[in-house]
Amino acid sequence: MASTIQKISVIGDGGWGTTLAIYLEAKGYDVLVWGAFSDYAKQVAQKRENFKFLPGIKISKRIAWVSDLSLAIGHADLIVLATPSQYLSSVLKKIKNCDYSKKTFVSVIKGIEIDSLKRMSQIIYEELGKVPLAVLSGPTIATELARGIVTTAVVASHKPSIALKLQKVFHSKIFRIYTNADVVGVELGGSVKNVIALACGICDGLKLGTNAKAAVLTRGLAEMARLGQALGAKKETFYGLAGLGDLVTTCVNEKSRNRSVGEAIGQGNDVNKILKSMSMVAEGVATAKAVYHLSRKLKIQMPISQEVYNIIYKKKNVKAALESLMMRGFKPE
């Protein structure tokens, strides 16, 4: 691990990756962004605006924008992994061909891989070996931090020294960073909340009101904690920023991608058509499938997540799914 972090490469040019690049450059770091598509990378480099994923936010000319992965890896002391979750594995396989020795990695990706049912840090270790690694998650709507609005997050690592080091890298008067040792809980909180946000969006689409949405959010949090504990996370992590904090933000923010997709589903729109109309990735759609299979594998009851899966992948009617939830057997809270 490099003793001092001065150069940073962000791998992934979506809204959150772009926001972090802009933010870290403003803090004085030498920042480079890698995007998978060379034509788009050239457009962003020329126009100094990520018009697909972060429109209206100017990008400093000091931030390099490239599509050469080996250049991006070679540039940095710190590698920020910000790709969509289902593409991380293929990107890591390419990084293996680069010299990533003495690099520190931080994943800001919120998702679970469908095929392997693995968290992002598990995939990173599997592909790259035991590299110095942390994960960063929390209630982080990209456009808010990009506009300088106060935001908080958690950085978690199995090694406290790495978490403390990255806390200093990311922390500022507008971005407060806490540390945590529960990597499993922080990753799962940031991933499963997207599934519950889809459910809250469906509530909005059905115009069910505040009572129903509060119930989904609250019982959804219980599902997140239940799954997390079964996988070795601490229950209290889910009542912190990476759990409840991120859940509330994603479920109530009008611009939240996952909540918006859920709302469109609740209004009767076909999920495939919704996704085709979007340039950004709604991670909850893929995560719903991964969570469904994880919960079945672990024999954990996650009724809200299961009904989201049924709606998206089994084409179950949303009102029938709601009735299934309401008419479940009696039980204590």
Task: Offer a few descriptive terms.
333 residues; alpha/beta; 8-stranded mixed beta sheet
Overall helicity: 40-55%
Distance between the termini: 46 Å
Q: Rough shape?
A: globular
Percent of sequence in beta strands: 5-15%
Largest sheet features:
8 strands, mixed
Which strand order does the major sheet show? 3-2-1-4-5-6-7-8
Uncertain regions spanning at least 5 consecutive residues: none
Structural class: alpha/beta
Mean pLDDT, to the nearest integer, reads 96
**Number of distinct helices:** 15
Q: Tell how many strands the DSSP assignment holds.
A: 8
Can you tell me about this structure?
The protein has 333 residues and is of the alpha/beta class. It is 51% helix and 11% strand. It contains 15 helices and 8 strands. It has helices at residues 15-26, 38-47, 69-75, 88-95, 120-128, 142-146, 160-170, 183-205, 210-230, 241-252, 257-266, 271-276, 283-298, 303-313, 318-326, and strands spanning 7-11, 30-34, 64-66, 78-81, 104-107, 133-137, 151-156, 175-180. Strands 3-2-1-4-5-6-7-8 form an 8-stranded mixed β-sheet, with helices on both faces. Strand 5, helix 5 and strand 6 form a beta-alpha-beta unit. The longest helix has 23 residues, at 183-205. 51% of the residues are buried. The model has no long low-confidence stretch (mean pLDDT 96).
